[in-house]
Amino acid sequence: MSAGTGRRRSTGRPLSHAASRPVPAGTRSGAGNRPAAARPGRRTPRPAPRAAAARRPLFTGRAVVLVGLVLLLALTLAGPFRQWLEGRQELARLAAEGTALDQRIADLEAELERQADPAWTAREARERLAYVLPGDRLVVVVDGEAAEGDAGTLPEVPDTDRPWYEELLGSVAEADG
């Protein structure tokens, strides 16, 4: 009965000095876990020259994964960052618009105060609408000639029996000639 065969005693128990685990394939029986002794006549391997040590790959797997994660993070944050910038621009635009509207409100309130004055209303009625107070004399200039009359009346224009388009062509010819 040898130790490496794995035979059992008559009691049925395994041998105490037998291997309790399977031997890996490709190993010699009897070869233990001890390192092999150096054989005479063999040289020890030389260390690699420095040029070989400098030939590391340009990008390691970790660097590629890190760059990928940074790009993914940048792409993920690009949309919200762009929206944030657009929101800031919108707020600035709305603030400027609000300031312009406040100025417009102040201008309109000043105009309302000015229009509430009866003297301003009378002056505007005389200038824009040619209103006159009773007793005032109205002078209206028509075609370079002064026409006088009572307040609110104009001299009558003589009617012509020509159609409107002939009147128009006549006035164009008169202005041209």
TrEMBL record:
<dbReference type="Pfam" id="PF04977">
    <property type="entry name" value="DivIC"/>
</dbReference>
<feature type="transmembrane region" description="Helical">
    <location>
        <begin position="63"/>
        <end position="81"/>
    </location>
</feature>
<keyword id="KW-0472">Membrane</keyword>
<feature type="compositionally biased region" description="Basic residues">
    <location>
        <begin position="1"/>
        <end position="11"/>
    </location>
</feature>
<feature type="region of interest" description="Disordered">
    <location>
        <begin position="1"/>
        <end position="54"/>
    </location>
</feature>
<keyword id="KW-1133">Transmembrane helix</keyword>
<keyword id="KW-0812">Transmembrane</keyword>
<dbReference type="InterPro" id="IPR007060">
    <property type="entry name" value="FtsL/DivIC"/>
</dbReference>
<protein>
    <submittedName>
        <fullName>Septum formation initiator</fullName>
    </submittedName>
</protein>
<feature type="compositionally biased region" description="Low complexity">
    <location>
        <begin position="28"/>
        <end position="39"/>
    </location>
</feature>
